[in-house]
Design brief:
- A hairpin with a 2-residue loop joins strand 2 and strand 3.
- Helices cover 0% and strands 46% of the residues.
- The protein has a four-stranded antiparallel β-sheet with strand order 6-8-1-11, with no helix packed on it. A three-stranded antiparallel β-sheet has the order 7-4-10, with no helix packed on it.
- It is elongated.
- The protein has strands at residues 2-6, 9-11, 14-16, 21-24, 28-31, 36-39, 48-49, 54-60, 68-70, 73-76, 91-95.
- The protein has one domain (2-81, 88-95).
Length: 96
């Protein structure tokens, strides 16, 4: 299982919260596993915020090595009152 989570984006005097960071995995672009890989969010209509751990993909139907590739999208909504600056944060990807 592939998971993602983010921290808030911060700059001097401002923060963009994780509730303004959206993610969707999209479909697989390549799959080489004996099982089936299922996207957590197949399209932008299924996007989720990264304010909690979110499943990007899960694989089922096999106990062997599972492998899939995808091109995820991260979308950030910048609040109208956000100060100008260079924001930093962390998006963590983990596999279990």
């Amino acid at each position: 299982m592939e998971r993602h989570r983010a921290t808030a984006l911060t700059t001097t005097g401002g923060t963009i919260p994780t509730s303004d960071i959206a993610y969707w995995s999209g479909p697989t672009t390549d799959e080489s596993s004996p099982g089936t890989c299922q996207p957590g969010q197949s399209s932008s209509g299924n996007q989720v915020t990264l304010n909690a751990a979110r499943t990007a993909f899960s694989c089922s139907g096999s106990s062997g090595n599972e492998s899939c590739s995808w091109n995820p999208t991260v979308a950030i909504t910048v609040p109208a009152n956000a100060p100008v600056g260079q924001y930093t944060g962390v998006i963590t990807h983990s596999a279990a």
